[in-house]
Amino acid sequence: MLRTREPAPALDLPLVAGGRWNLAEQQPETFTLVVFYRGMHCPKCHDQLSELDQKLDALAEVGVTSVVAVSGDSEERAATTVQDWGLDRLAVGHGLTMAQAREWGLFVSKGVKEPEPDEFNEPGMFLIRSDGTVYSAHIQSMPFARPHLDNLVNAIRFINDNDYPARGEA
């Protein structure tokens, strides 16, 4: 089971823009934000990633200087997502395996309608400290009710200002 204050699972995936994104190589000011999204088929993911693309400066202001969105989509589907959704700044990784999704504690669903893949991960959002440990995890079994990014930015500001510890460690 994934726990706060413990090392995050490894994550090393190719990026749509080329190159790779490796969690172990990130050097954020305060946190790395890893957002797992369901894939190109998900309209709620479209909304979330479009907002995230526009909130990168606000996140950087509170020290979140490393942000990635990841799915199990193929390179082609992820590239279409970036282009069709107008994700101009957000790093988008692809090729997440369902074994990796489970290692991160994500729910995995079976496709029930077109154009859902046969299997895909459900959403998750993780703040990872600069030392590679999990600070917070927001995991959902459904595409709905994701954390609002303005609330996240305000929470990180509070965390930074008050040296608030990760919770859920017991």
Biggest β-sheet, characterized?
5 strands, mixed
Radius of gyration: 15 Å
Approximate shape: globular
Low-confidence stretches: none
Give a description of the structure.
The strands form 3 sheets. This protein has a 5-stranded mixed sheet with strand order 5-4-3-8-9. The protein is 28% helix and 24% strand. With 170 residues, the protein is of the alpha/beta class. Strand 6 and strand 7 form a beta hairpin. It is built from 5 helices and 9 strands.
Throw out a few tags for this protein.
single chain, 170 residues, alpha/beta, five-stranded mixed β-sheet, two-stranded antiparallel ribbon, 5 helices, 9 strands
List the helices and strands and how they pair.
Blueprint: E1 12-14, E2 20-22, E3 31-36, H1 43-54, H2 56-61, E4 64-70, H3 75-84, E5 91-93, H4 98-103, E6 108-110, E7 119-121, E8 124-129, E9 134-139, H5 149-162
Parallel strand pairs: 3-4, 4-5
Antiparallel strand pairs: 1-2, 3-8, 6-7, 8-9
Structure at a glance:
The chain is of the alpha/beta class. The chain has five helices and nine strands; from the N terminus they run βββααβαβαββββα.
